[in-house]
TrEMBL record:
The keyword Metal-binding does not apply. The chain crosses the membrane at residues 12-35, 84-111, 145-168, 174-196, 208-226, 232-254, 266-285, 291-314. It is found in: Cell membrane. It comes from the Bacteria. This is Drug antiporter protein. The keyword Methyltransferase does not apply. Pfam families: MFS_1. It is a multi-pass membrane protein.
Amino acid sequence: MLAADAVRVVAFAGLAAMIVAGRASLPLIIVVAVVETAAGTLFGTTEHAVLRGIVPAEQLPDAVARNEARGYGVSLVGPPLGGLLFGIAHTLPFVANVFSYLGSMIGVALIRRPMRPAREATPEKYGAALAEGVRFVAGEPFLRAVLFIAAPLNFAINGVIFTIVVSLQRHGTAPAVIGLTETVIGVGGLIGAFAAPMMQRRWRPATLTRLICLVATALLLLSAVLMTGVAAAVPIAVTLFLAPACNAALFGRLAATTPDRLQGRVLSVIFLAAGSASAAAPLLAGLLTTVWSGTATMLIFAAAVAVSAVVATVSHGLRQPAPELTTTRQAP
């Protein structure tokens, strides 16, 4: 985690320096963006993997929910703050990034509790470690269910947000209104993150997962009808209201189910599948919106969520009783 933050500090400090020197170019910006995303993925996967080592097992779902709230909060505050800083001076947003990652490094360095068990005497090679993670996911009914639910669900939600923005642009909607639309969607997720602990205590992970899949399918169909206006964002905001509770419940149980030494490997497999599908969604949304229409594109994404709903409904893995939550924290 420290190494990932250090890479991002260097990348953004370099970009800020090139802007000051008047030598910033689009290829350089793309390289920095790729480096930042790669380091962020490494940091995020590790963060999820070590959570079990520093949080009592019975508090894992609440911890995941709080992290979700942090993410949605930052997604709401970050863009306007970045725009404000960019208006003052073009280098300021990137200098602010440097200080934010330095702050993250200080926070990580202040953690005194061991984040994982001791390493094996002879660490496995990368290929063997990845294969072990894939085998473990394939052999656990609960993890298989999560994999086949998360991939189409992430794909669809990421795609519909992009579709709404593109459709509003094509209808000549003012940029401020488009920004308001994205804010409405983000607020739904933020409120849902704060409500997640209460929802987790009321419903089991399987119930929450089926609920979000079934409700999301219906809401995406409604959003397709409302496609030409800002109202199309409201059903998506309601969908994201349910998402943090579902994520917290599933990842809390995943952390409790998976042995410590496999946490990172299993999460890498899950994130790779879900993230790959999600990354492809904007491209597909743009192509479909150009060839057909925003409404038709929304219907296709609704069909993808319906696939998740079917898996969540028929999966025996989700219905298996959760294992006993036992803490693995070590003495500092």
